[in-house]
Write a structure and sequence with these properties.
single chain; alpha+beta; Rossmann fold; eight-stranded antiparallel beta sheet; D-amino Acid Aminotransferase, Chain A, domain 1
């Protein structure tokens, strides 16, 4: 019997991330190719797990990526293409369509990338979302602002995190902002600003069902941290708490409504201060950024990058994927921009500190305990110390830098 050739996976990333996915894919016996940008060539990619690295000046022009991957395809068969970063999701969806590859295509991807598309689909499915409108027709925009009280947030439909979001405090403010956006304004949506606590649920989805989910709560909402500065924090919720149970059920409804078949998701929800209800904010078909997956791993023992690789490969091979049994510890994380290039975290010596961030001009750590109150105590104390030792602020970018 002829020996079966190993599967070849092409990972595409315009940022340095996804090392654990690459390593796990190699552990699973795959050939792993990496396409990234020239400026990232010297990053600490797990070279021992990568068979070949291909470089481009940038990955922002879809047609250039299609041309490059199609040329590569002439000499070697590619079984699966994976985007490691949010900004590669659309390019990979287009590549899959062009090369007739498995995975989410352009239409399915829209519901996990385009903030307007996902809101419309969710609202049509009966899921609570803040009031919103597309920025297409000015009469509709005026009608929306007459009906829905300010403040609002003007959100780019396809950026990540809080990038490009602008808060609009009065209806009259919108017109000058739209004038500056010129032809780009249809790439935005206008949404009612809902004060509340922001949560995130990070999931593994197989055969259309959520088979693992971890619910977390941010400290200061990410939008506030991005625009006003401060310490970014998150912690996992007690699995049996009312908020955790409600969020996981809500998350299942969102994933089912938006049509995810298999993969990983990072979804954000807000619990309104006004009515105490959860509202859907956004969801992405990727592992959460800002090292949130490292915090989730400390709490549950589940590494989302590794499990994503196992799931994708099992699906491709026609095998059944089974998620490992999760632990129920508690973990929390802090991160901030640092005024030092290499911040010194050596004085953060409590035994609960299990991970420290190694990134220029960033300070961050993760704490872990079987005692939830201890996590909150450490997050509060460390946030004050971070503010004194490291914290600086830079205005948020409107667009990613390539």
């Amino acid at each position: 019997m002829a020996e079966q050739k190993p599967l070849t996976i092409l990972c595409i990333s315009s940022y340095f991330k996804g090392e654990r996915f690459i390593q796990q894919a190699k552990t699973e016996g795959c050939r792993v190719l990496l396409l990234t940008e020239e400026k990232l060539a010297t990053e600490k990619w797990p070279r021992e797990s990568i068979d070949e690295v291909f470089l481009m000046p940038d990955l922002s022009v879809t047609q250039h990526v299609i041309n490059a991957v199609s040329y590569l395809y002439r000499s070697q068969w590619i079984d699966l293409i994976i985007p490691l970063d949010e900004y590669d999701v659309e390019n990979v969806a287009t590549l899959r369509e062009h090369l007739r590859q498995p995975g989410m295509g352009q239409t399915a991807t829209r519901y996990f990338r385009d903030k307007l598309a996902m809101r419309m689909r969710a609202a049509e499915g009966g899921i609570l979302v803040p009031s919103f409108t597309g920025v297409f027709n000015y009469d509709r925009l005026r009608e929306f602002m007459n009906r829905v009280p300010a403040p609002y947030v003007l959100k780019p439909r396809t950026q990540a995190g809080a990038m490009g979001i602008k808060k609009i405090n009065h209806p009259d403010e919108i017109w000058s902002v739209l004038e500056k956006l010129s032809d780009e304004q249809s790439g935005f949506l206008l949404e009612q600003f809902v004060p509340g606590d922001v949560f995130h649920v990070d999931s593994i989805v197989a055969k259309g069902k959520v088979i693992f989910a971890s619910a977390q709560k941010y400290g200061v909402p990410p939008l506030s941290v991005s625009h006003d500065g401060g310490i970014f924090t998150s912690r996992n919720l007690p699995p049996k708490s009312e908020d955790a149970k409600a969020l996981k059920q809500f998350n299942e409804e969102v994933i089912r409504t938006l049509g995810m078949e298999h993969g990983v998701t990072h979804a954000e929800y807000i619990k309104s201060h006004a009515d105490g209800k959860f509202y859907f904010l956004e969801v992405a078909a990727r592992v959460g950024g800002a090292n949130l997956s490292d915090m989730i791993e400390q709490a549950t023992g589940i590494n989302l990058w590794e499990e994503w690789a196992k799931l994708e490969i099992a699906t491709l091979r026609g095998e059944t994927y089974k998620v490992p049994k999760a632990r129920t510890d508690y973990a929390g994380m802090l991160q901030c921009l640092s005024k030092q290039e290499h911040p010194d975290l050596s004085n953060y010596t409590e035994p609960e500190v299990v991970w420290k961030l190694d990134k220029k001009y960033h300070a961050g750590l993760i704490v872990k305990s079987d005692n939830r109150e201890r996590i909150e105590e450490l997050l509060s104390a460390y946030a004050n110390r971070f503010a004194e030792d490291f914290l600086t602020w830079a205005p948020p970018k409107d667009k990613p830098t390539h």
